[in-house]
Amino acid sequence: MRTKRIKIGSETEYYLLKEPAKCLAEGGLVVFPTETVYGLGANALLEESVKNIFKAKGRPSDNPLIVHVASKNQVSEVVSAIPKVAEKVMEHLWPGPITLIMPRASRISNAVTAGLDTVAVRFPSHPVARRLLEEAGVPVAAPSANTSGRPSPTKAAHVVEDLDGKVDYILDGGNCSVGLESTVLDTTVTPPQILRPGGISKQQLEEILGQVVYDPGLTNQRAVPKSPGMKYKHYAPKAQMTIVEGKDIAGCIGRLLEKELTQGKKIGVLTSGNHDYPADFIIDAGESAEEYAANLFDALREFDAKGADVILAELPFGESGIEPAIRNRIYKAAGGNVIKC
Ligand code: AMP
Ligand code: MG
Fold it and tell me: What's the whole-model pTM score?
């Protein structure tokens, strides 16, 4: 398949979305930018098209997809009921990086929900995504536009690396501003549960909803996560990665480097504002949590491109805002290989 690439810089170029929107509605695969990461979209009402998403990504078929809508009104097309909790979140935080689990409508393809009786729904805020969804006029199932297991794509170039020749269109809308996937909130249980931390924080949800809890499967090694996707190894670079947290991150990385450097391996360090390590190369993801989140997946791909054997990563963050989402992704990328100093 020849993949058409279209760059959409400004509103004056939105007319370029007509063709890909038509292709999407008629069963094609279209990659589009969102504020979280790039999405690989198919018409959520067409079973065969949705199955093509799983083929293109190599995604396990028991991992359900998020359905993207163009408006709050379109939600009733894909769910059988809207829980009160979901209504409140939609009112305050949509469009934005928060996905709501609701009871599913039967017309949604089984391939989307992986046979569950619920469906995940999101209304993204990225203007290109919004216009594409409006033009397509159908709900669009879209997981992240990467090969399953690789770091999620936050630039069109990442998508090209993974999916060129496997999709009809790649729409380039620049870098994704959040850089990590949406928060997934189960609104069918009381209290509502965060199944995946993401772009909207627990604190933001609690301001609107009162008590909100994390799915115990996220933190407890023995509990199975309720979100099927959370059990897979994810976001992983090719190098062996170690996360370093705690009060003396720099000292700890310094000591680890002394050991690793004697082994003749190519060593990269992922830093948060620091530059002074004797490593083969350093990638600085940025000092603030927001910058670090936005740069993380690009950095992981960059380590692969530079051929790192070992990555040591500074993780100087706590529990507020997007920090739990950063920790969730980077722990998975490192396969749980964490040192607390
Ligand atoms: P991705 O599309 O790659 O960003 O992943 C979507 C995430 O939402 C995965 O972790 C899925 O397992 C999760 N998800 C999608 N639908 C449901 C659902 N009905 N119930 C629970 N988790 C879901
Ligand atoms: Mg994904």
Answer: 0.96
